[in-house]
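User: Let's play a game. I give you a shape written as tokens, and you guess the letters that built it. Ready? Here's round one.
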């Protein structure tokens, strides 16, 4: 069964989704790729992982720095996307990295000369766990704030909230 809970954030509603007591999604209402890779009946029911996620987000928006590993995550995606999302989880609170830097890490991990930053951007954009897997901390090599599936205004808010910009 796939359980959902609507979380009201300072940036708008976020749909929290879990399956088998693991968080599989946290999407802003109306963002690109909303409910991507989710199939089955959705039941609005708050369970333990959704309660923990709600508490995690409350603390985040209150200015605390909750750790990603406090939540049991199981984002659905290709192995390449999951590899990118794992790197996103390593970006410290209040810091940023670039698509190019992530591409270099993936290339090194795979023992290849280079990886496309555009491919990284695609994987980052399909992140199903907004805020929790901090894709908002990824910026362009020239320092510009580009791309965020929930909208650039939300990315700017989150980076300012973390004092990253």
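Assistant: Ready! My guess for every position:
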């Amino acid at each position: 069964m796939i359980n959902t809970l609507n979380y009201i954030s300072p940036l708008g509603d976020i749909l929290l989704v879990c399956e088998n007591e693991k968080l599989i999604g946290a999407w802003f209402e109306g963002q690109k790729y909303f409910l991507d890779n989710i199939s089955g009946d959705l039941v609005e029911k708050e369970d333990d992982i959704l309660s923990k996620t709600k508490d995690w987000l409350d603390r985040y928006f209150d200015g605390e720095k909750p750790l990603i590993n406090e939540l049991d995550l199981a984002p659905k995606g290709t192995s390449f996307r999951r590899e990118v999302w794992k790197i996103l989880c390593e970006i410290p609170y209040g810091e940023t990295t670039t698509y190019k830097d992530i591409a270099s890490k993936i290339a090194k991990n795979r023992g290849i000369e280079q990886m496309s930053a555009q491919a990284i951007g695609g994987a980052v954009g399909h992140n199903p766990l907004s805020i929790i897997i901090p894709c908002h901390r990824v910026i362009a090599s020239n320092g510009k704030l580009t791309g965020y599936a929930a909208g650039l205004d939300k990315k700017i808010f989150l980076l300012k909230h973390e004092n990253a910009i």
